[in-house]
Amino acid sequence: MDIERFKHQHVDILQRIDELRSLARSGIENNAMTIAQRVAELGKLVSLHLAIEDRIMYPTVRKAADPALAAMGAAYQEEMKGIASRYLRFTQRWSKAEHVASQPEDFRSAANTVLKDVYLRMQRENHEFYPAIETL
Fold it and tell me: In terms of CB atoms within 10 Å, which of 5, 93, 105, 107 comes out highest?
């Protein structure tokens, strides 16, 4: 299975997370408009990535001849539901500049938690799941 598209999307998502971190470090209130725009853009990208995974990658992995890989895929997909749900709530709330500007520490806390979850998950996919898929 060719997963280059997924890998490229991971690189893009991770770069955008890094950009959000930089903007927050430079001052949340001063960058509230840009932060909110970047959160909305990242939300669209993550949603697209998840939809493609659900439509293409996970069904293919479930049909794998290797039962361990099929089980790994099912576990990854199930785990992603919780991460995706938290991420979508984050995007809905923090894609509004007025929320970011008026609640900078709440944004920082939410971003640190949710974006860290997404980051760690993608690192696990990059180092564990994707290499296993490439053996198909």
Answer: 107
